[in-house]
Write a structure and sequence with these properties.
There is one protein chain. With 169 residues, the chain is mainly alpha-helical. Helices cover 56% and strands 4% of the residues. It contains 4 helices and 2 strands. It has a two-stranded antiparallel ribbon with strand order 1-2. A hairpin with a 4-residue loop joins strand 1 and strand 2. Helix 1 crosses helix 2. The relative contact order is 0.05.
Amino acid sequence: MTVPHPLSALVGRHRALALALERDFPEADAETLADTLEGVSDLPELLMRVLRSRAADLSLAEALRHRMETMRARLERLESRAEQKRSLVTTALQEAGLRKLVAPEFTAYLRPSPSKLIVVDDSLIPAEFWVEQRPRLDRQQVLAALKLGREIPGAVLANPEPTLSIRSL
């Protein structure tokens, strides 16, 4: 994976500094070279700032997720309340024998609704009314089999890429 443009110059400079230190001080141990490189390169500090910014983004995303769940629940309550009101008016109109309400901003009227299907026993319904589903690949099962060493035509395991593990206090 190539580092994005703003960091690529710093990564290149960091690599060049590391090579120069190794070349100029061949007798220095790895820890001394790493400490020296840390003192002359801005890259580690910049990467730490990027990770702090990532943590802030994750916090904002979590807050937004919570807010969206709250708003979703509110939406469901509003929709439910609106449906209850519609049902209330429908029942009242039926019981009162009214067919129509006319107001300046709307007209509401009772009309017959289309017939609704109720399946009593689906095992009795003839085959002509059933739709076959296309098979779907169980990716987890294929992955597990490949990890166990089984060869599966058309599928292979990708080489693992390094991943960044971040522990917070």
